UniProtKB/TrEMBL annotation:
InterPro entries attached to this UniProt entry: FAD/NAD-bd_sf, GMC_Oxidoreductase-Related, GMC_OxRdtase, GMC_OxRdtase_N, GMC_OxRtase_C
Short name of any one Pfam family annotated for the protein: GMC_oxred_N
Protein name: Glucose-methanol-choline oxidoreductase N-terminal domain-containing protein
High-level lineage: Eukaryota, Viridiplantae, Streptophyta, Embryophyta, Tracheophyta
Family: Belongs to the GMC oxidoreductase family.
Domain Glucose-methanol-choline oxidoreductase N-terminal: 292-306
Length: 592
């Protein structure tokens, strides 16, 4: 009997050890088994796989630059019938604990190391921001909330509603979950209803006025499921995914009298070695840019497509003049109001949302300041002492401003981080900015200006949103949950101003003027878009105007951010565009 008990204990220990090994060390073996087509860029050989019509060089039907939110579903779809090469500048998400677990959400964003899944940047507005640098793109570093766009958006962009409604479920069945509502989110839901954000629409992916619970890409164990997992639906024999493959420019045939034709791309691997990958000679083969709203206009300009003066300034050989590349950049401004608590609260990201009729969305998060990795500690880009402020205008990065930033961080009351935040985000901002190259190094961020609250209507909406957020916090439902006295608006705003969330100089009247509060405490929720708008940079099929065999499939083509949170629609867009391309090329034979 003793021997049997000992054997059982040994078996249990072995299972637990294997489970730990799988979580920490075995992720690489798992993804190599499930995704055998994912390889490091340095393994690339131009004569290693698919049949070729360029002598002995391998060529591809489609080269997708960027294995992100749109790029992964696009690649999985196109590979059903054609050879596809995906070039992703970052690594894989599967073995990265900062990506995989909800509890590490804030740590991933604070990581400023060269291998981080998140590449920080600061807009010239002084707002701290981030862009993804990992297979799976923004789905690896975002708050996970999943919702669909409303039908008006689908109509405005001219998409086939029938195919859209086929494409959303394709994504949802694979990586989207119904959340287990956290106590903070439940109290927030009740408070929204108390202050009139009604009706209650329950759990739904649809964009409906009122209060709802949306989907999430975090499962019930708090593990993230990213766009990279959609690659499991690919045809593995027709797909090659290279990670740490940084594309430096698109290669063109510029024969006289003809529109520039994309031939392939030039990229470097993780060792710094240069490579070229080429398309087949078929006129329907394409290079497809899915680098996101920052990366795609940047790469277009580095490839010679953009405003003539911009290209000449950096001695970039011009392929095609297009004054609209990098223009119309927009980011939905967000402002947050702290809700302090004397006790710790369960961590939660966006689960509940209030969709109002006054042009703002109200959301909430909780519990991300109470760990040792909170803002009180060295917090990556949020630690001004590291000095990564080169793109911020000089008047906003004075020594006094940086010292004030550091002091405010140290003086934050601990109670502020035992609670959470009520967030208000402007829907469809009218304020827009622009993107410009700083240099010709693709690894460096371009200069980005969003011009937050440049349009007075955006500012009026923010004021209304802050008032709504304050009502939520002061509601009986919420104060009963927080067990705190009903705070005044001025006290809430004063604590929020001290939260140290951007590099914009603060004003003494921040807590008395809601307009000034909005301007001085604006932050991002990473829903930036634009830079390659339909009708100006691409046609309605997302083909780059004035070129052949070059297309864009990502949020840079949007003139507005879809729904309360865009990731669901960008994921759907990858599937949608892939199916559309296949059906136009193959008809019923496409089989999708």
């Amino acid at each position: 009997m003793a021997a049997f008990v000992g054997a059982v204990k040994l078996f249990i220990s072995l299972v637990l050890w294997l489970n730990t090994l799988s979580s920490i060390q075995g992720a690489r073996d798992f993804y190599e088994f499930r995704y055998p087509f994912i390889k490091r860029a340095s393994s690339f050989s131009s004569s290693s796989s698919f049949s070729s019509s360029r002598n002995d060089e391998v060529t591809y039907d489609y080269i997708i630059v960027g294995g992100g939110t749109a790029g992964c579903p696009l690649a999985a779809t196109l590979s059903q019938n054609f050879s596809v090469l995906v070039l992703e500048r970052g690594g894989v998400p599967f073995s990265n604990a900062n990506v995989s677990f909800l509890r590490n959400f804030h740590i991933a964003l604070a990581d400023t190391s060269p291998t981080s899944a998140s590449q920080p940047f600061i807009s010239t507005d002084g707002v701290i921001n981030a862009r993804a640098r990992v297979l799976g793109g923004g789905t690896c570093i975002n708050a996970g909330f999943y919702t669909r766009a409303n039908s008006d958006f689908i109509r405005r962009v001219g998409w086939d509603a029938w195919l859209v409604n086929e494409s959303y479920p394709w994504v949802e069945k694979q990586i989207v979950h119904q959340p287990k509502l956290a106590p903070w989110q439940d109290a927030f839901k009740d408070s929204l209803l108390d202050v009139g954000v009604s009706p209650y629409n329950g759990f739904t992916y649809d964009h409906i006025y009122g209060t709802k619970v949306g989907g999430t890409i975090f499962d019930r164990f708090g593990r993230r499921h990213t766009a990279a997992e959609l690659l499991a639906s690919a045809n593995p024999k027709m797909l090659t995914v290279l990670v740490y493959a940084t594309v430096q420019k698109v290669l063109f045939d510029k024969s006289a009298g003809k529109r520039p034709k994309a031939m392939g791309v030039m990229f470097k691997d993780e060792k710094g070695n240069q490579h070229q990958a080429f398309l087949t000679n078929n006129r329907r083969s394409e290079v497809i840019l899915s680098c996101g709203a920052i990366g795609t206009p940047q790469l277009l300009m580095l490839s010679g497509i953009g405003p003539k003066a911009e290209l000449q300034r950096l001695n970039i050989s011009m392929v095609l003049h297009n004054e609209f590349v990098g223009k119309g950049m927009a980011d939905n401004p967000m402002n947050s109001v702290f809700v302090p608590m004397t006790r710790s609260v369960e961590q939660s990201l966006i689960q509940t949302v209030g969709i109002t009729k006054m042009g703002v969305y109200i959301e909430a998060s909780s519990g991300f300041g109470q760990s040792q990795d909170s803002i009180h500690c060295h917090h990556g880009l949020l630690s001004a002492e590291i000095g990564q402020l080169s793109t911020v205008p000089p008047k906003q990065r004075t020594r006094q401003a940086i010292e004030g930033f550091i002091k405010r961080k140290r003086d934050l009351p601990r109670e502020a981080f035992k609670g959470g935040f009520i967030l208000e985000k402007i829907a469809m901002p009218l304020s827009t900015g622009h993107l410009n190259l700083i240099n010709t190094n693709i690894d460096n961020n371009p200069s980005v200006t969003f011009n937050y609250f440049g349009h007075p209507r955006d500012l009026r909406r923010c004021v209304n949103g802050i008032r709504m957020a304050a009502k939520v916090i002061q509601s009986d439902r919420f104060t009963n949950f927080t067990k705190c006295d009903k705070p005044t608006i001025e006290k809430l705003l004063n604590m929020s101003v001290k939260a140290n969330i951007n590099l914009i100089p603060k004003h003494t009247n921040d807590t008395k003027s809601l307009e000034q509060f909005c301007k001085d405490t604006v932050i991002t929720i990473w829903h930036y878009h634009g830079g390659c708008h339909v009708g100006k940079v691409v046609d309605p099929n997302h083909k780059v105007l004035g070129t052949r065999r070059l297309r864009i499939v990502d949020g840079s083509t949007f003139s507005e951010s879809p729904g309360t949170n865009p990731q669901g629609t960008v994921l759907m867009m990858g599937r949608y565009m892939g199916v559309k391309i296949l059906r136009r090329r193959l008809g019923k034979a496409a089989g999708v």
